[in-house]
Design a protein that fits this description.
The protein is an alpha/beta fold. Among the domains are: 157 residues, ANL, N-terminal domain (Rossmann fold), CATH 3.40.50.12780; 101 residues, Luciferase, Domain 3 (Luciferase, domain 3, Roll), CATH 2.30.38.10; 99 residues, 2-Layer Sandwich (GMP Synthetase, Chain A, domain 3). Helices cover 31% and strands 25% of the residues. Helix 1 packs across helix 2. The chain is globular and about 65 Å long.
């Protein structure tokens, strides 16, 4: 089975059932399949063939799913990316992936076109009306019109072949493309259905960004695999989300802790909005126990916490809704997922002892695109090494206690300090820099830059942020800037970030 088969099955068995809801409109399985077929046919007409890469730079709108399934239907590889990324970031991802065609929005076209030109991408498709799209660039509707509603005639992809590249830095350097096959993704869909028991009557809220593996698998792929529907919301705003949940009859709400915290803070006066929600799912960052308790009591629902990295399609474990929930843990491994706790020598440690969480199973990626050394390191001895430090108890429930690496999680999205540090080092006034995280009750982590200046140089916190904002997505831009005469280092020259975190509250935020 490949991704397209799930959609085709829905079209054959329940064509009139809603598959996707967006604002005031819905697409049935028949309508969505027809659009996917037309997109696939248009790709073939544009010369896109098996193994070619199709970039998707879109928010949560129906064309995202159409492009994702249309590309993978003909054996091409979908390359979703965060719409907030700036041109230099897109240049790296699209160049590394060797993208042949880009689908985006008019609002994102300037940066997308700039990146496409630098990389040498010939095909740009823009979702929007003709009068909003510059001459010479095809609109999404015009592109669809080049295909037919018939199933694609291209050679069928093999389940073990790549379906998606999802770019993730792990913790160091520039983003790497995690290569996920059709089998990886559909294995994870089956595993998720086994534990969360999606039915054809379920309606999943999709406010998590579809470019991220969490929403891509749990909200989109698992919904279509199980024959239910998902409701897309482009941007998280507490009141707007509750409106969508209530109006569309959402039954399952996947989110990150920051979303649940914001709803409690800004929209707790509407507990009736979640009346039909049978299950909330939390991932992407640790869920504070106090927040979970407060949300469940206020909205009379349950939150099950799970976890998993992009490289695992992504879900590896979850607290079973119908079994024992151990609040504060990430639950039990999914069926078919093996999880262990290893020491630094890849030996399994005893119950209760801290070590690195490692994973093995059919949901684990094929590897990193064009990164054999990084793949070999991450997949040592056949186990994917997550970089998370954790424990397992006598009942098999896993708990994450820390991150082995320096990765931050801001609003459920990974942020990698080294990428920001390397940019800071390019500023002519900055001599030294380190990026660390501070706890933020709404966003999870707050990005903090600690910098020292070159002799005689002057710089304000605002100037540092403006400098970063020109090259980085806004969520990566440091919210706080602390100036120090020098950064603490050990004898080998490594910055002692643990000391910076300890001393952070004593530092100066810097002049504005």
């Amino acid at each position: 089975m490949v991704l397209y088969d799930a959609l085709a099955r829905g079209n054959a068995e329940y064509p009139d059932r809603l598959a996707l809801v967006y604002r005031d409109t819905g697409l049935t399985y028949a309508q969505l399949t027809g659009m996917v077929n037309r997109f696939a046919g248009a790709l073939i007409g544009a010369g896109i063939t098996k193994g070619d890469r199709v970039a998707i730079l879109l928010p949560n709108v129906p064309p995202f799913t159409v492009a994702y399934y249309g590309a993978t239907a003909i054996g091409a590889i979908a390359v979703p990316a965060n719409p907030l990324l700036k041109a230099p970031e897109l240049v790296h991802i699209w160049g590394d992936a060797d993208v042949k065609l880009v689908v985006t929005l008019p609002q994102l076209l300037e940066g997308a076109a700039q990146a496409a030109q630098q990389v040498g991408i010939q095909h740009l498709v823009c979702v929007g009306p003709r009068d909003a799209v510059p001459p010479g660039i095809m609109t999404f509707d015009e592109f669809l019109a080049r295909g037919t509603g018939e199933p694609p005639t291209a050679p069928r992809p093999d389940p073990n072949e790549p379906a998606v590249f999802i770019y993730t830095s792990g913790t160091t350097g520039k983003p790497k493309g995690a290569v996920l096959s059709h089998k990886n993704l559909l294995t994870n869909c089956r595993q998720i259905q086994d534990v969360l028991q999606f039915t054809r009557d379920d309606n999943l809220l999709c406010v998590l960004p579809l470019f991220h593996s969490f929403a891509g698998t749990v909200c989109q792929n698992a919904s279509l695999y199980c024959g239910c529907r998902f409701t897309c919301v482009e941007q998280f705003q507490p009141a707007r989300v509750l409106d969508a949940i209530e109006k569309s009859g959402v039954t399952i709400f996947p989110g990150v802790p920051a979303m649940y915290a914001a709803i409690i803070q800004f929209a707790s006066d509407r507990p009736e909005a979640l009346a039909r929600v049978r299950l909330c799912v939390s991932g992407g960052a640790p869920m504070p126990v106090a927040l979970l308790d407060a949300f469940e009591k206020r909205f009379n629902t349950i939150i099950v916490e799970g976890d998993g990295p992009t490289e695992c399609s992504p879900v590896t474990s979850v607290n079973p809704p119908d079994g024992i929930r151990k609040v504060g843990t990430i639950g039990l491994p999914l069926n078919g997922v093996e999880m262990r706790i290893f020491d630094d020598n890849d030996n399994e440690v005893p119950v209760g002892q801290v070590g690195e969480i490692v994973v093995r199973g059919g949901n684990v990626m094929l590897g990193y695109h064009n990164q054999p050394e990084a793949t070999a390191e991450a997949m040592r001895n056949g186990w994917y090494h997550t970089g998370d430090l954790g424990t397992v108890d006598e009942d098999g429930y896993f708990t994450i206690v820390d991150r082995k690496k320096d990765m931050l999680i801001v609003g459920g999205i990974n942020v990698y300090p080294r990428e920001i540090e390397e940019l800071l080092y390019t500023h002519p006034a900055i001599a030294d820099a380190a990026v660390i995280g501070a706890a933020d009750p709404l966003r999870g982590d707050e990005v903090v830059a600690v910098v020292s200046l070159k002799p005689g140089a002057a710089l304000t916190a605002r100037e540092v942020r403006d400098f970063c904002r020109a090259s980085l997505a806004n969520y990566k831009v440091p919210r706080r800037v602390i100036f120090r005469k020098e950064l603490p280092r050990n004898t080998t020259g490594k910055v002692l970030k643990r000391l910076l975190r300890k001393e952070m509250d004593l530092g100066s935020a810097g002049p504005e």
